[in-house]
Amino acid sequence: MSSRPCLAITRKLPQAVERRAALSYDVRANELDLFLDHAAMIAHAQGADALLACAADRLPAITIEALPDSVRMIATFSVGVDHIDLDAARRRGIVVANTPDVLTEATAEIALLLMVGAARRASEGERVMRAGPGSPEAWSGWAPTQMLGRSLSGKRLAILGMGRIGRAVAQRARAFGMTISYHNRTRLFPPLEQDADWRASAEELLVEADFLSLHCPATPETHHWLDARRIEFLPPAAIVVNTARGVVVDDAALIAALRCGRIAAVGLDVYEGEPRIHPGYRTLNNCFLLPHLGSATIETRNAMGFRALDNLDAFFQGRTPMDRVS
């Protein structure tokens, strides 16, 4: 019988991460890479000492409470922990750790991609180029008024949540000639602000936002933060980008604003209820949509996996995991 801890991994991980995990743990893999519902998660965890879970997993109280007594730690392959009921984990004495700090650059890159894609109507242009000959959507050649978008240069980018990712987005946006304002509950120290302007209230931030980029965590206070009331504070034809959490946006309100032209465009990488998304987004040309690619680079996903394993190693060596959240 092996003396190594048994690690149940809930999804397929990058090869380098799986190879490292196999060096220290008896790994129970999800070979088919299928989503594990409540019953499947409990079955997968039987006899395991720890879970290495992912952001797409759902670990509410009912699942945490049903985990076998052998499970002593959950390492999540994500920064966000809103998919895990931390209170339930505390009651069970299960340690939870996440993977912060390693996906800042990749997520900031996606935010800029969404900004440029939404402003320059990239999804419309891509569809035109893929349309076959004879299709009414097929490209008929250059025209002076074809698919006119908006420049980033000279525009103001408003950032809700000026943490590591928000600051990395601001740094990149400056290279496009944008000016930056932001809203946090507390103002940053000047060296972190650089030339960004702090706004004491969300309303002050919104009224000047040519582009609004969301980088706040999912909390009860930020649930549907961008709703119909707050949309009305935005300038006409503003562009909204979300790489934070889908629940930060009220989909129905945002779609209504897109349909009537109150909002010029959106760039979205996260969605409430994903992978199911509000069908209204699919009907609109002014939506630039990505399938949650924020951290999807080889370098970042490897770093996330290694960070999760660092936390697991610390726990099983009797030390406190660096990124313990519960």
Quick structural summary:
With 326 residues, the protein is an alpha/beta fold.
Index terms:
five-stranded parallel beta sheet; 326 residues; seven-stranded parallel beta sheet; alpha/beta
Structure notes:
With 326 residues, the chain is an alpha/beta fold. It is 33% helix and 15% strand. The protein is built from 12 helices and 12 strands. It has helices at 15-24, 38-45, 61-66, 86-92, 104-119, 122-130, 164-175, 190-193, 202-206, 228-231, 251-259, 298-316; strands spanning 6-9, 26-28, 50-54, 73-77, 95-97, 156-160, 179-183, 197-198, 211-214, 238-242, 263-268, 287-289. A 7-stranded parallel β-sheet has the order 8-7-6-9-10-11-12. β4, α4 (86-92) and β5 (95-97) form a beta-alpha-beta unit. α5 (104-119) packs across α7 (164-175). The model has no long low-confidence stretch (mean pLDDT 96).
Major sheet: 7 strands, parallel
Radius of gyration: 22 Å
Strand order of the largest sheet: 8-7-6-9-10-11-12
Question: Residue share in helices?
Answer: 25-40%
Derived from helix and strand composition plus strand pairing, the structural class reads alpha/beta
The parts where pLDDT drops under 50 for at least 5 residues are: none
Strand content: 15-25%
Structural shape = globular
Strand elements, count: 12
Regarding quaternary structure, what we see is: single chain
What is the residue-averaged pLDDT?
96
Order of helices and strands: EHEHEHEHEHHEHEHEHEHEHEEH
User: Counting H and I runs of at least 4 residues, what is the number of helices?
Assistant: 12
